[in-house]
Amino acid sequence: MMAEVAMVPETEYVFDVHGLNLWYGSSHALKDVDMQIEKNSITAFIGPSGCGKSTFLRVLDRMNDLIDNVKITGSVLFDGRDVYVDYDPMDLRRKVGMVFQRPNPFPMSIYDNIAYGPRLHGRPPKSELDAIVEESLQRAVLWDEVKDRLNKSALSLSGGQQQRLCIARTLAINPEVVLMDEPTSALDPISTTKIEELMVELKAKYTIVIVTHNMQQASRISDNTAFFLIDSERCGYLVEYGETSGLFFNPRDKRTEDYISGKFG
Ligand SMILES: Nc1ncnc2c1ncn2[C@@H]1O[C@H](COP(=O)(O)OP(=O)(O)OP(=O)(O)O)[C@@H](O)[C@H]1O
């Protein structure tokens, strides 16, 4: 009888970035970044202020397109297709959602915040919209807190609730990836814990990429971490990228070790 061979599942990557360089005008902000981002995982970007973490995050959903004078070279593949060649930016952003540092609910009801994206993309009937609103709020673990006040203004929610609402709003258009730029830096510790738990739950269905200044947060919740630094010409580059446990507890690069042990940055 043939021995059974245990199959190790092949890692699937949603993003595959090669030789990425980015300039703001004449200022070289990111140099030669290569990175593959694993599907259904949390990837954290860490590094000192100005090293290009947010810039790199915005490369992934083409948000830098909205800034004048940005030049990008290299390739950024999302699901095997080039983000800058094969995608319309609006189609891309439907698949790659973004949550920002400061909760930014629209000045309208809780319901309308969530319904906004689906209405924009296809005008579903009311019953379908109701189901999307409930499901998105459930996924963002906010439903129980707001189900009796869906017609109240989103601005009446607490900061932590507003951020979960913004996450629910992003989930309502059914993205594959959720990018989060310091999503808890404006929140208190209890709200931060809720968002962290939520991210860990969400990775079963989505791929999460997060910029964070909080190294404990990166080590608590992320599967992979990318550490960026700035060189003598003020240009950001990737120092080390890999499994979070390895990067924090057994870094390959002395600069990573110095940064995570608080020797600089
Ligand atoms: N819209 C812009 N126009 C010109 N330069 C910019 C712009 N946005 C960022 N930069 C510059 O690019 C560099 C990287 O900035 P970025 O915000 O990506 O860094 P970061 O690592 O996310 O910083 P922080 O942790 O402080 O948010 C910085 O020198 C910054 O001043």
Helices and strands in order, then pairings?
Layout: E1 13-24, E2 27-38, E3 42-46, H1 53-60, E4 70-78, E5 81-82, H2 89-95, E6 96-99, H3 110-122, H4 126-139, H5 143-146, H6 159-171, E7 177-181, H7 189-202, E8 207-211, H8 215-221, E9 224-230, E10 236-243, H9 244-249, H10 254-260
Parallel strand pairs: 3-8, 3-9, 6-7, 7-8
Antiparallel strand pairs: 1-2, 1-4, 4-5, 9-10
Helix pairs in contact: 3-4, 3-6, 4-6, 6-7
Adenosine-5'-triphosphate (ATP) is lined by residues 24, 29, 47, 49-55, 67, 236.
Summarize the structure.
The chain is an alpha/beta fold and 265 residues long.
Cα-atom Rg, whole angstroms?
19 Å
Task: Give the low-pLDDT segments.
Answer: none
Q: Topology as H/E string?
A: EEEHEEHEHHHHEHEHEEHH
Structural class: alpha/beta
Q: What's the CATH first level?
A: Alpha Beta
Bound molecules: adenosine-5'-triphosphate
Distance between the termini: 59 Å
In total, how many domains does the architecture comprise? Answer: 1
Number of β-strand runs? 10
CATH architecture, by name, is 3-Layer(aba) Sandwich
In percent, how helical is the residue content? Answer: 25-40%
CATH topology: Rossmann fold
InterPro entries: AAA+_ATPase (IPR003593), ABC_transporter-like_ATP-bd (IPR003439), ABC_transporter-like_CS (IPR017871), P-loop_NTPase (IPR027417), PstB-like (IPR005670)
Pfam family, one: ABC_tran
EC number: 3.6.3.27
Protein name: Phosphate ABC transporter ATP-binding protein, PhoT family
